[in-house]
Amino acid sequence: MYQPASNRYQQMKYKRCGKSGVMLPRVALGLWQNFGSVNPIENQREILRKAFDLGITHFDLANNYGPEPGSAEKNFGTILKSDFCGYRDEMIISTKAGYTMWPGPYGDWGSRKYLVASLDQSLKRMGLDYVDIFYHHRPDPNTPIEETCEALSHLVRQGKALYIGLSNYRPEQAKKAFELLRENKTPCLIHQPRYNMFDRWIEDGLLDLVEEEGVGTICFSPLAQGMLTDKYLKGIPADSRATKNYFLKESDITEEKLEKIAALNEIAVERGQTLAQMALTWVLRKDRVTTVLVGASRPSQLEDNVAIVNQPELSKEELEKIETILASK
Ligand SMILES: NC(=O)c1ccc[n+]([C@@H]2O[C@H](COP(=O)([O-])OP(=O)(O)OC[C@H]3O[C@@H](n4cnc5c(N)ncnc54)[C@H](OP(=O)(O)O)[C@@H]3O)[C@@H](O)[C@H]2O)c1
């Protein structure tokens, strides 16, 4: 019988999500990869236990996480029931809909038909009465944004989601959606964009917008799927994500990237951090970032990542050195 660590809330720091009442852990765990039906459930259990012991209270899912799609929610539900019974109220659980989930015209994008049906399916798979955050996973160019926002608001009014999130919305799309959700009296809690040293699009408008709007920001793939760690410096390890050639491909680990990774690693070592830790510290340097949303294939990675909450911020000189490396050809 699993007993969570009694000191778990001393291990983590928490930050208010935008102007809401919700506090989120500075490091949250996503179940996009390593939690599907193709992955051993015992390892999933160990990662989730370790996360909770480290004070990670936020777990991020989506209808399509797996593979196969839906299996991450199913596995998470199984482990919630067996290990975390009695701890639901200590957790913020999110899921999403927006990518292809089932065949035909109603299993994708942003219609009311899809969003309502998908959340019902997700709740069943996880064995939950409600999720804390329900996200629209990506903007839909063909459905009126009013319909998508009204569907999200409807799910909150029904009590199936406590808060609404948006993911991958560009600033102009996000601004319109924030406005509509506010009019519906179900304001957007949080935006979930990709942000890491190799992908900085949110610096061009989105971060200013979320600040103005009082919306939180949770950054996904802060380690660029593992590239911003020291693991690829000596070749591609057999058990790493790149070998799966799924979303991260071996061909993504180019010579140019490796040169930057090696130079960044030197700064991390000088600071007494791992490169993973420095990459996460870098994302959190922006005050408007509430949380980094990491993935993990083993519990030790979470130990490494969560240690950042007690490590020093990056100095002006270190930030400048990092900028020079990132800007180099
Ligand atoms: N909204 C969206 O569209 C969207 C898209 C993508 C992801 N997400 C969310 O963001 C979450 C995180 O995404 P991500 O998995 O790409 O994040 P990430 O943190 O950039 O990458 C995670 C991978 O990095 C490696 N890693 C993690 N910590 C490490 C450490 N300390 N040392 C060495 N390697 C380490 C592991 O790779 P190995 O497997 O090689 O060990 C791990 O699987 C997802 O689970 C999901 O919840 C959302």
Characteristics:
alpha/beta; two-stranded antiparallel ribbon; 11 helices; TIM Barrel; eight-stranded parallel β-barrel
Structure explained in plain terms:
This protein has helices at 41-53, 71-83, 112-126, 145-157, 171-183, 206-213, 241-244, 255-271, 275-283, 299-306, 316-327; strands spanning 14-16, 23-25, 27-30, 58-60, 92-97, 131-136, 161-167, 188-192, 216-220, 291-294. By secondary structure, the chain is of the alpha/beta class. The chain has a single domain, classed as TIM Barrel (Alpha-Beta Barrel), CATH 3.20.20.100. The strands form 2 sheets. It has an 8-stranded parallel beta barrel, surrounded by 5 helices. Strands 1-2 form a two-stranded antiparallel ribbon. A hairpin with a 6-residue loop joins β1 (14-16) and β2. α1 (41-53) packs parallel to α10 (299-306), α4 crosses α5 (171-183) and α8 runs antiparallel to α11 (316-327). The longest helix is centred in the C-terminal third of the chain and has 17 residues, at 255-271. The mean pLDDT is 97.
